[in-house]
Design a protein that fits this description.
GO terms for molecular function: ATP binding. The protein is α/β, with parallel strands linked by helices and 261 residues long. It folds into 2 domains: 158 residues, Rossmann fold (3-Layer(aba) Sandwich); 65 residues, no CATH class. 39% of the residues lie in helices and 24% in strands. It contains 11 helices and 10 strands. It is globular. The protein starts with 8 loop residues before the first strand and ends in a 5-residue tail after the last helix. The model has no long low-confidence stretch (mean pLDDT 88). Bound molecules: adenosine-5'-triphosphate. Adenosine-5'-triphosphate (ATP) binds next to strand 2 and helix 1. The site of adenosine-5'-triphosphate (ATP) has 11 residues, from strand 2 and helix 1.
């Protein structure tokens, strides 16, 4: 019999409160994301999910609480340091450079991990050339991995929405993140694309040794691939547990009444 090692929390969110004027978007929220797991974050519209992602990305500063990544507080870090720490993210409304090609967008994703200094870049010194080569290798690998070969040299603006979503996932993976934050990756995808997305997320978790925090309204996807789920309503955590436990939780059912997708 094999014995499993102790579970380590890669992300610890404790007592996070965020206010926008009179609105309390998050009210003392706490949960952990164990290393290697997929944790789903669910809740009706306005529950505070995106606000939480923006706290994790250091875009919003909570009025109280702490966030620890790999045992260290990230509360004093600026937003631009988060990626180099190993926290990657996709966005609900996509954050791609539309006039750049797929390859260029994915290359940019690896920048915080591979970046050289300004002088090397300006004078095209060996350090800069090495970085460019590495960025291209990473992008080439991800283009094959996510089946984007046929569109690698196309401008992102010319692509169908589902393909753009795959490009954004590739851009986030180019960072080689340890923690990947996925903000509604199934939004706007058709049934077949959602199925493929679920398979891709699970495959990527294994192949890239990822820990994933997934905000998602698509119940089929989030229940199908999450190890654990945390449910929010009105800025508060109302339940946490396995997908099976969450599906039968009275508070979750009540929060979602009439909102089933
Ligand atoms: N920048 C902001 N300024 C003012 N209020 C905000 C801001 N961002 C979010 N809110 C408010 O905070 C609350 C939580 O919003 P949030 O976008 O985090 O919810 P959500 O769970 O992500 O919703 P959805 O599923 O619709 O994306 C809402 O009442 C929202 O109107």
């Amino acid at each position: 019999m094999t014995t499993k090692g102790p579970e380590i929390d890669l992300l610890r969110v404790s007592d996070i409160t965020v206010r926008f004027g009179g609105i309390v978007a998050l009210d003392g929220v706490a949960f952990n994301v164990p290393q290697g797991k997929i944790v789903g974050l669910i809740g009706p519209n306005g529950a505070g999910k995106t606000t939480l992602f923006n706290c994790l990305s250091r875009i919003y500063q909570p009025s109280s609480g702490t966030i620890e990544f790999d045992g260290k507080s990230i509360m004093s870090l600026p937003a631009h340091k988060i990626a180099s720490l190993g926290i990657g993210r996709t966005f609900q409304n996509l954050a791609l450079f539309n006039t750049a090609t797929v390859l260029e967008n994915i290359r940019i994703g690896s920048h915080p991990r591979t970046s050289s200094d300004l002088t090397s870049d300006i004078f095209s010194l060996p350090g800069s050339r090495r970085v460019n080569k590495e960025a291209t290798q990473i992008a080439d690998h991800l283009i094959s991995y996510l089946d984007l070969n046929k569109v690698a040299y196309k401008n992102v603006s010319d692509l169908p929405f589902g393909t753009k979503k795959r490009v954004e996932l590739a851009r986030a993976l180019a960072l080689s993140p340890r923690l990947l934050l996925l903000d509604e990756p199934a939004c706007g995808l058709n049934h077949e694309e959602v199925k493929e997305l679920g398979e891709t997320i699970c495959r990527a978790r294994k192949d890239f040794d990822l820990t994933i925090l997934l905000v998602e309204h698509h119940m089929g996807l989030v229940m199908g691939i999450s190890d654990r789920i945390v449910a929010f309503n009105f800025g508060r955590r109302i339940a946490a547990g396995t997908p099976r436990e969450i599906q039968s939780d009275p508070q979750v059912i009540s929060a979602y009444l009439g909102e089933r997708k």
